Each structure stands twice: as structure tokens, then as C-alpha cells.
Amino acid sequence: MDIVYIRDLKVDTIIGIYDWEREVRQTVSLDLEMAFDISEAARTDDIRHTLNYKAVAKRLIAFIEESEFLLVETMAEKVAAIVREEFAVPWLRLRLSKPGAVRGSRDVGVIIERGERPATGAASAI
After folding, report:
1. Which residues have a catalytic role annotated?
2. Where is the Dihydroneopterin aldolase/epimerase domain (predicted)?
3. Whose CA is closest to 84, among 13, 122, 32, 48?
4. Looking at beta carbons, which pairs linking 103-108 to residues 24 or more positions away fall under 8 Å?
5. Right CATH number for 2-115 from 3.40.630.30, 1.10.1760.20, 3.30.1130.10, 3.90.76.10?
6. In this predicted model, what pLDDT tens digit does every residue of 70-94 receive, in sequence order?
7. CA 48 to CA 10: how far, in whole Å?
């Protein structure tokens, strides 16, 4: 299985548990690895046979911008479900982070994997 990825997709949203976080849009960053067989797309040079990363990014941007979550864990689960269900992705690894959320660190967040891991040994793009 092949990996299609999106790295450092930045989206502004309402995220957090503190009162001030409920009033100010913050930036979250997503790194996404998605298992997808690209062999037919490579053979035909036709985008209809691959995972359209632009369509995935646009869908996730729209969803996250319109959403409000308390926890990054909840947002990560919802994002993973959208990708798996709407884009027929059998496995994904998602890194969702809040840059600047903790003083002294670049970012904090979660990394989740959902679905059936690809049979072949694909290297991590994250």
C-alpha cells in the first residue's frame, strides 16, 4: 500500500478548555498520512484513480473552521472519521498539534492511527 500525505495543514478554529480559548481562534496544524493504492493512477495518469489530497485538505479545512472542540483528541477522532469514511482510506496516521499552546514548546498535540495498517512496509512521511 502507498501513502498519500499532507504536511503542516494549518487551520484556525475554536479549540481548548479555558474560557479565553473559547473566545479566540487558534491555529491547529495537521500532518496526515493516508494509505491508498496509487498504482492505477500512476498507470493511467488520471486523478480519478488516486486520493485527491486537495479535496481532502479542502474538506478538513471547512470542517475544522466551522467546528468548536474542547479537546484535540475529539477533533482528531472526527477528522480521522471524515477521511476514512468520505475518502475510502483504509488506514491513516494523524498528527494534530496546537502550536504555542505550552510555553517553552513548539507545539503539543496527539498522534493517532486508525484502520487497517498497510500490508507493505511504508516509511513514515511525518
Report:
1. 98
2. 4-114
3. 32
4. 107/29
5. 3.30.1130.10
6. 999 999 999 999 999 999 999 999 9
7. 26
